[in-house]
Every structure is written in structure tokens, then in C-alpha cells.
Amino acid sequence: GATYAISTSYAIFLLAFSVQLAVSQSRNHFIRFACSQLVTERLDPLGTPGIVSPHVHQIVGGTVVGSSFDIQMSADSPMQSTCTTCRWKEDASNYWTSVLYFKHQNGSYLRVPQVPPNYTGSPNGGIGLFYIRPPEGNQKVTAFPKGFRMIVGDPSLRNKTFVDPNSSLGRALTFRCWDETYNGDPNLPAPGTGSDTIELPNKLCAGGIRSNIYFPSCWNGKDLDPPDHSSHMAYPNGELDSGGHFWFSGECPASHPIRVPRILMEVSWDTRQFNNMWPSKTNQPFVFSQGDPTGYGQHADYIFGWKGDSLQRAMDNCWSYPNCKELTDQSSEVQNSCTLKSRVDEVVEGKHINALPGCNPIQAGPSPATMGPCPASTRTSTLLTN
Fold it and tell me: Among positive and negative, which fits the CA dihedral 217, 220, 224, 228?
């Protein structure tokens, strides 16, 4: 894990970005940090509030309501967290994605572990996060308001849904195939650029696979969480260049005029233990927990939970990576001590399982996935009360 977490190329990328920031601190900055694993379970307060969700998620961030990632969260829930797995103590938000599994030739599944992002200490697995403001134009960035939530991506997708690959939407959700040495191309370009793909790589990635997930950064200024959890948000106008979303300064559309922080989520899947288990050189064996072997159904959820005006202060004043004088730093040990036990009584990781948890037969598309009949034993699981 420690070797995997160090990438010379990525250090060069961050250094170059920091140098550019030093030249123009008033216009261009970001905060970057990691959140260790909180819990892996079949709950989803946005998609299926109050009940066990259809597929497994890996979750980071605040504990909410004292002891659990709540199955039905109110606007005040994140503020009641007793701890957070994120580096900055003020961030009690929750972030989650579906989980990647390896499908063995014998038909069993094993959860692919995560490793922390480069140069973020030693958190336990989890997610890397950037909160970015545009690099040009000195554009005002407004922090999300209390109660804000959003989803990006559609778990049912099994095919491309856009025409222009250079559009904001076209490069919002991608994968990076890490080479064996973690050095040079394709590991140097900004996430979502270069040879990154919108589908799961259909080749062996000797060093692992990273999910690059950019949330939209333009808000309509009205809705905190519409029924679809996404229509209140949009990507900036214009086409991306070689710098991708990371360096993009497009204007927000008139329908969504409020520019909020651009969140980049990085999930590093440590697939190395499976390098010698591939069934063939052309048929990749990984599948997401919603039964998606394509990667087109990659998606992520966000519930805002920053305390007070801490995020606004950070976006206004922090440009000296990796530190932020406006925020309270937590050690990796403190981050890793904030964990929860799953409230769903089933095995989802740590051992081989015979089927993906829930009712998730593998569907490769190209049509969107549908919920079909499945054995009664896979339909529900017991929700523990403590």
C-alpha cells in the first residue's frame, strides 16, 4: 500500500499546480485532502432513504447522529457527527460510491480494496478529494448551503450517453489505468485527461485503477436537493482542452448561474492482487456492485456537511497546498479511529461471496440495466438497530 501511494509523476503534477498558484494566488487555488473509510454497506440516504439500498456503497466522512451513517438524513444530520474520517475536522460531509468487485472464474466475488491517494498521510483506504476554483477570471466561488445534496452519474447506464467527448459531461466520470511503475504516462496528466477512459479499462492495469469523478460546479441557486438529486446542478459551458476539468474556466449557464466548488473525487482501487487471475487478456474481470462490468454506471453521492462558514473561508483564503490555515488538521490516526459497523446484516467484503449483495445480476448492456427477478434470499437483508 505504501509503495502504491507514492507517484513521482503525480508529485510533479501537484508541484506544477502549486507553482502556478504562487504566481497568481488571487485567482487560482484548491484544497486537497483524504478521507479514510467510514463503512462499507448497502445503505444510501439519497437514493433509497430509510431502507436497505439495492447495491453496496463505500462511504467516507462524518458519522452523523452520534453513531451511524444515517439511513434517512436531515439537513442538520451532518452537523451532529461525533467524528469525521476526513483530514479537515470541519468537514462532516458524506461522500460515497458503489464498490468494485473482482469476479473469479469460479463465479465468486471479492471486494477490491482501496488505497489512500498520494501524499495524504496514511488514511485507511477511502477517497481523495479536491475542492477547486477556476484557474482564470477571478470568478467568485460560493460554498454549498446547509442541506445541499447532489448525485453525479447513473448506476443503470451501460453505454455512452453523450456525443461530444470533449464536453464537460463527456469527461466528468473516467478511469485511470495505472502502469506497473506508477511513473510517466499515462499517470502524469490531470485526472480525466490523456488516456483516461470513460469505461472500465479493458486491459490489465498492473498498478491499479483510479476512478476520477468530477461533480458539476454550477448551481441554480434555488434547490438544495430536488427529487432527482441532480437537476439543480450543471457543468460549465464550453469544451474541455487538454487540461480537462481540473483547469477548466468555462462560464456557468444562465439556468445555473451560481458557481460552487468543483469537487473532484479520486478512488484508487488496488487491483494488484488480481493481476495473475485474469480469465483472458481481453475480457476484464471487474464489476461494480450494481452489476456493472462496463464502468458507464459509475456514480457518486455527496451530502454537504461542512461546519459553519469553514468551506467558504477555505475557498476564499487557502492556496498554499497542502495546508489551509482556515481549517483544523487531523492526523491519519484520528481519521482512522472514526469508523462504523455496518447496519446491514450481510457479508460484503473481506471474503469471497457467491453473488453481488442485493439483487444485482451482471448486465453488460448496451441497454440500461433493469431490476429483474432474483432469489428471495438476495432481495432483502436485516437492518440492525445498533
Answer: negative
Contact 335, 117 (CB under 8 A): no
Cα distances (Å, whole numbers) of residue 281 to 9, 202, 276, 291? 27, 8, 11, 21
CB distance 169 to 192 below 8 Å: no
Place of cell 473525487: 265
Continuous segment of H or E residues that includes residue 37: strand 37-43
Cell output for 381: 437483508
- Measured from the Cβ of residue 353, the count of other Cβ atoms closer than 10 Å reads 16
> Residue written as cell 490489465?
204
Query: Average pLDDT by consecutive 10-residue portion of the chain (386 residues)?
Result: 44 50 48 93 84 90 60 57 92 95 94 90 92 77 95 91 71 88 54 88 91 95 94 90 79 95 94 87 86 95 95 89 88 94 87 91 86 58 56
Block residue for cell numbers 466475488: 109
Separation of alpha carbons 149 and 58, rounded Å: 17
Instruction: Please tell me the distance from the alpha carbon of residue 40 to that of residue 185, in angstroms, as a whole number.
Output: 32
Q: What is the largest CA-CA distance in the chain?
A: 61
d(CA 114, CA 35): 12
DSSP code at position 108: -
Contact, 321 vs 131, CB < 8 A? no
Residue 181 CA to residue 159 CA, distance in Å, equals: 31
Q: pTM of the predicted model, to two decimals?
A: 0.86
